[in-house]
Structures are given as C-alpha cells and as structure tokens.
Amino acid sequence: MTERTYYAIGDVHGEIEKLEALLTSIRDDARRIGAAPTAVFLGDLIDRGPDSRAVVERALRLCQAGEALAVRGNHEELMLHAFGNHESIGIYWWAENGGDETMMSYMLANGPNDDWRETIDEHHLKWLDSLPVMIRDEPRGLVFVHGGIDPKTFPECSDEIRMWTRSNKFFDPGRWPKRPELDGILVVHGHTPTSDFQPHVNPRRINVDTGACFGGPLTAVVLAPAAPPRFLHAC
Question: Percent of the chain at pLDDT above 90?
C-alpha cells in the first residue's frame, strides 16, 4: 500500500455532477503525475443532494473495480438504521437530515412504491452495510475515517466516534495526549463542513468536507508518497 497515490474525497451528499467532474480531474491529475490513483470515499455519499442513488452506484462500481475504497459515514448509518428498524423516530430522523431526497432519487430511478424500502436497490444496501468505518495505511500513518477519532483511545475508539465525532479534543491536535499510538498519524476525514468552503489542514488531520451540498465545491486531497498534500475541487 505504501506506493499508492490516494485521492480522498469529502462528503458527496448526492451531488453526482460534482462527483463526475472531480473524478475526471482525478484521472487527469493521476495521468499527469504518472500515478495509479486510488480514490477514497470518506462517507456521506447520500442525502441532501439531487441524486444519491447515482452517487452510490458510481462509488460501488469503482470499489468493485479496485479503483476506490470507501468508509461508512453517519448518513449511511442513518439510512441503514431506518431501513432495518420499523420505528418512526429512526425514519423521521433520517428523513429530516436529507433522507427524503435520497428516497426520491431511488423512486425516480426504480419507480414509486407505497413502501420506500422496496425502491432501494438491494445490492446498494448490502454494499453500504459492508463498508468499514476506518481504513488505515499504517506504513504511511494515514487514517481514513468519516468523522474523526478519539485521541485518548485510538485505535480502539468506537464506531460511533469514527462516524459522528465533532469533538474539539479531536479538532485541536494541541490537546491530543502523548501516546505512541498517535505518533506519525494523519487523520483524513469529512463530516464537518468547513465554514469557508476550503479544506482544513493541520499536521495531524485534514478535513475535506467543503460543503458540496451547501453550495461549496466537492474536494479531494491528493496524498502521494513523499509529497505534501494537494487539493482538487469540482464546483
């Protein structure tokens, strides 16, 4: 894994046009530098944007082809919970956080149904349910996760923290404890949209959620061996 050039993509949130434009930029960039690209989807493929189904299908196919990796985000978790539990609160919470747009995208593609569950492709659900919540390239110290980590317990922090955390203790590396498990790691994540639509970088973490579903660009960070991070954007 040490020679890979990663292109870690922030929260897509159903923005298929931005994703296609960014994937084109990734291919062009990889060709320019002579790298075999590995895209890494950092979660929240779905909800809020216009075509979550198309985004899931695109990411799934790239992963099946060995061209990409993906981690599960909190919005995938909300969807899976709503699908698997016939409780009104779970469905309501997902719908209020962008699930309505996701259900509509599947209905438009697969036809309306009185039960929204019947409109969602089974192979999409199986794939989303199979996704890990963290991927590591340990030789290079890279940690790919949707929300973040708990510096006190990493790498044993819970799935909930990996998908949901917005803790200041994670955001501020000056508050990270001195633990050998944290030596040399760089956490690459999304989940928390940046206020200025620009990626946030410090020596311990990179946030590439630049608010694609809120009018910002979709961003990927380029992580090539022995090179500083660079960024690609699609508006």
Answer: 94
